[in-house]
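SEQUENCE WITH STRUCTURE:
===
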Amino acid sequence: MSQDHLDGNSAGGALRDVFAVDLTAATGQCSGCARTLVLAEALLYTRAPGLVARCPGCEEVVFRLVRAPGRAWLDMRGMTCVQFELPAGS
């Protein structure tokens, strides 16, 4: 039997590169209404345990971010995809 995959640890470098960028300039597609938006256009609510961003078109939640000392939780299930620029040389 041939092994045609690696374990998730192999994505560590690529993920570290990805999350070193400013995601507010990223574009994404709302999974609720399929609107394409720049994340900076989202309606941001801060009166919660973290940040809740809603689509400006349909007001569905597009992402949630909660931080605690030494860790963070990011839920982006409200986006079908996110596109962003990588730093030069990446």
Remarks:
- The two ends are 34 Å apart (CA to CA).
- The chain has a mean pLDDT of 90.
- The beta strands are 27-30, 36-38, 43-45, 51-54, 61-68, 71-75, 79-83.
- DSSP finds one helix and seven strands in the chain.
